Amino acid sequence: MISTDRNIFVEGSEAHTRMLEYGTLVKELHIIIFAKHSLGLKEMSMGENIFLYPTNSRSRMGYIQDAIKIVQRQKLGVDIVTTQDPFETGLAGYFVSKKIVAPLHLQIHTDFLDPYFTKHSFLNVVRIRIAKFLLPKARGGIRVVSERIKSSIHDNFQFPFSVFPRIDVLPVFVDTEKFQNGMPSFDLHEKYPQFNHTILMVSRLEPEKNISFALHLLARTPSSPGSVCGMVIVGDGGERKKLEAEAKKFGVSDRVIFEGPQSDLVSYYKTADLFLLTSDYEGYGRTLIEAAAAGCPVLSFDVGVAREILNYWNGSVCPAGDEECMKRNISQWADEPGLADSLRISARGAVKNIPRETKESYLLKYQKMWEAAVLGE
Q1: pTM listed for this prediction
Q2: How far is CA 56 from each of CA 40, 64, 257, rounded to the nearest angstrom?
Q3: Structure confidence by residue, pLDDT tens digits, 2-18
Q4: Would you state the torsion angle of the CA atoms of residues 272, 330, 174, 267, taken in this order, to the nearest 10 degrees?
């Protein structure tokens, strides 16, 4: 496996736990992680059959070559090479798979063919070119996290029949029962009594999540004594300082709470009045599932699985970038007493459109996907 997720090294993290679960599916799991030498990461093992190798590169430019060197140095003999994305890790996986003669399996978590994908970075333009080169080379198949991405690939790629790769739709696992049945340990209305209405966002603070749009939207939402609309943002990322400055610039710093990363998401989802997602693009949109399962009304751009789980009765979906649609829905939600409560009840039914499964059944699907990749089925 070739990845960029350095949290795999952090014991107790979600990524670390997920790798331990994947390790139960195979005889050995070797994970190469793109990382700079300055991070000081060391090769290590997890359990008896999972082995981690940081590339310890001098710069990002060396990630791919250093990944190949690790395979040569360790003399790894593996049955399949699976990569986190069809971009840089995918390119490293392609060269590694050729060197050790093993099927290449690509995983796609982002709707990279969405027009907004190239909006933030010229690098993303290059990444699309890399993906177009790699997808036909994926002899082990392709895993996508949503039907949206699968359809996007079918609509935009013309594969020769002889090399048409198998595409498996395997969403990110979400423990919906945890959010449906979990009991909140606190109430946002009691924690922030200055707000009459509370909008919740749970997100990495990165450009593609478009939190700036949400702050601008809040600034355009009327606020008066007795009807103060506040926003609580859970998560962290490279844009936090920029977003805090924008909140001041838009005059809403007193109505925005940056909570940072939190582990008790159930309490946030269960006691917020509205969950807002303003991402430019999403491959899946796990937080949409979590919010709906917890019974929190949802307002989202049309990204990820929004159209698959939301309708008039449990939330609203606006075209990406449509500010007027978003503003209209927030105004209606804030102005009509009882609307949020009725949406909250209906939201719980939204997750019925998402197949429920246990972690065990999910991992079994993962295992069968890898087995099919090895066999070239």
Answers
A1: 0.86
A2: 8, 11, 37
A3: 999 999 999 988 899 99
A4: 0
